[in-house]
Amino acid sequence: xxxxxxxxxxxxxxxxxxxxxxxxxxxxxxxxxxxxxxxxxxxxxxxxxxxxxxxxxxxxxxxxxxxxxxxxxxxxxxxxxxxxxxxxxxxxxxxxxxxxxxxxxxxxxxxxxx
Length: 114
Known about the structure:
Distance between the termini: 30 Å
Strand content: under 5%
Structural class: mainly alpha
Order of helices and strands: HHHHHH
CATH architecture: Orthogonal Bundle
CATH topology: Chromosomal Replication Initiator Protein Dnaa, Chain: A
CATH class: Mainly Alpha
Number of domains: 1
């Protein structure tokens, strides 16, 4: 949890009224469990191993699966781009932005535009 000014609750900003949603209350440990589940599902669906997805290979048959995995981690778990990059083999956040754009159906030109 990020630190805030002393005496202020980060969840309610001092009002005492807080609404929680399931997506926003996942702990660090449960996010990792869910991330592992997504990795396993994507690996099984594509006939690859988790090692293929998180490894350094840039073989064309692996890339779409890695892109879909990055998109699912971002959409379903609300993970930070840098965290997804670390999980997927130490990739840079800009690589993850590109992967998510490609998984959303962007062309090469669209994925490279700002």
